[in-house]
């Protein structure tokens, strides 16, 4: 499963991993980056607009086109056998989106890793580089998995009434109060982030935060936000902590509202 890895682990791997920097290209070029990291900016793997009706039925939401994704990884020197570490400078939320996209498109989750911390925390104690590594392009072949955590809006609506499920809104308090899917509990994704280390809270603390929101491993967890970016981070956290039943509403509120479905306000 996709997991968190320490800066020490990343530094110890040498060139045995593919490190992916998802910050803007100007940050990669102008501010430096992790040694041997390749640049794959967030905007390059974000769909420009909401998907088609058929995409919505399949739970595709804002995922990029398959061919575009495969070309992007090929140009970054990634193969299906690559171990990938992704990072950003926003506590890992954009990097998590990259990794979840890779998982949904069939990359082995055991080979997907999120840097515990971000660029700012890395550069406090470790060297950075201004050199762009030479990359040998691959011919990345995408193989869709037999099953994914993706769910559509009907399944999300059903989860709100299911005693064995918890529907989770990972946005900010104010957004939640203005309108959320009926029956959803609030868990701001940043509640699982340690402001000092810029990485994941210690695991015991993270579990306590989750339990207070009623999010426990025994339940099926269904995640949504606005455009599936913030739930990507929460998804990686939950899987890292051993949660086995985590559903991912890719369409999120963008799709939910476009379909005229009801919202609840506080």
Describe the structure in brief.
By secondary structure, this protein is of the alpha/beta class.
Task: Please give a structural write-up.
InterPro entries: Rhodanese-like_dom (IPR001763), Rhodanese-like_dom_sf (IPR036873), Thiosulfate_sulfurtransferase (IPR051126), Thiosulphate_STrfase_CS (IPR001307). One of its GO terms (molecular function) is thiosulfate-cyanide sulfurtransferase activity. Keywords: Repeat, Transferase. With 266 residues, this protein is an alpha/beta fold. The chain has eleven helices and nine strands. It folds into two domains: 3-125, Rhodanese-like domain (Oxidized Rhodanese, domain 1), CATH 3.40.250; 153-258, Oxidized Rhodanese, domain 1 (3-Layer(aba) Sandwich), CATH 3.40.250.10. The strands form two sheets. Strands 1-5-4-2-3 form a five-stranded parallel sheet. Helix 5 links the parallel strand 4 and strand 5. Helix 5 packs across helix 10. It starts with a strand and ends in an 8-residue tail after the last helix.
- N- and C-termini, Cα separation: 36 Å
Largest sheet: 5 strands, parallel
What's the CATH class label of the largest domain?
Alpha Beta
Average pLDDT reading:
93
Number of domains: 2
